[in-house]
## 1
Amino acid sequence: MDGFTLRHLTLAIALSSSMGMAVAATSNDFVDNAAAGGIAEVETSRLALEKSSSADIKAFANMMITDHGKANDELATIAKKHDIEVPDTTTLVKQAKEKILDLRDESFDAAYANNQVKAHEETIALFKKEAETVTDDKKPGNVELKGFAQKMLPALEKHLDMAKKLQEAHPSK
């Protein structure tokens, strides 16, 4: 893997992995983390389309771009409706640069598959917490964000199952 590819993979995977690190204590925290994760999923998957030669990786990456792109748009709509700020891409790239990824001797496909499992586990935890939170109906967007989280969980769990199958098909060396 050349230096350019490794730098982009490191940035993209760190960005994707960073999304589930904080716990959603408020609707803004949930929006920040969900937006970061959604954007990271799309970006890492675009990189996978560019760098992978595996049909299953590319098919999964296309699904991530479509599904997470739609979810990102829906989240942005809810946030805008309730004047909840969504982090910009510059902020997310800065967060990614602060993370360190240890690729060891993994191939791109193994690194991507491993990252997808980890990122989806973290995303599911984030969304479950939001879905199970007792909402304050007076706070802007809380009810809608809880509903969004509940609606997205089945798709995220499906993505995790598929990512685990990719991980089995592309093991680390």
## 2
Amino acid sequence: MANQNSPQTASLPSSAQIPAPTVWPFVFAFGLALVFAGLLTSVVVSVVGAILSIPAAVGWFRDVLPHECLETVPVEPGVSPIVARQAEVARIQIDPEIKRTRIPVEVYPVTAGIKGGLAGGVAMAVLAVLFGVLTYHSVWYPINLLASIVYAQALNMPLQHLLTFHPALLLVATLIHLVASLLVGLLYGVLLPMFPRRPILLGGFIAPLIWTGLLYTSLGVINPLMNKLIDWKWFVISQIGFGLVAGFVVVRQARIRTVQFLPFALRAGIEAPGLMREKNGGHDER
């Protein structure tokens, strides 16, 4: 520590002014995020965001304009001694017997996701048709309602028309259901190996409830008319039915080991006799 009476420190002021800390920028950013989040969820969320962001913006500007709010802090003169250090590299001792493992260790083939998606799609279709028969005494109501994703004019039809057979709506609903089932089935094939302990819990309950909740909170803004026509109790039942059947079919398929089980030479593409095929088309020696 330098001498307080030295010429270098005698001319230093005893205090300094710095910009005062303020919480308003954080509150304003949080409120603005709620305003935009409400566009996809509920108008109540946007209202809460506006209530937070408007006074936060006013408070922020008052801290800056017309004069910036300053805070006085004491100044303690001193000179820190400069000490040279010799840089050293710290090395971690790793047991040579331990090998790095990449997760997942085993994966399902693409066909497992396709089979699971098709089986889950059949289960969901059966539950949807059962809902139509028990509620509206018609198997065509859930089919026509699904087709209205593309044919929006179907939502404006009288209820009696939604209970009757329409070839075009049947074709569109079948394509939508088939594509969506295959995509979700492939997603199950990718995700379920990462949760090997309780895959049915994830695929049969957790995942269907998550995407049902997201759809329930956003469909009222995206398509309010369809939101009124959907029976959400049966919708959740059909999604869980899809997840249980698709997850069960996927986990029943044989897994494939990832490339981490292969020798390093084979993974690196090095010509290693006995480990890989020869260039002339010959097979390996194993």
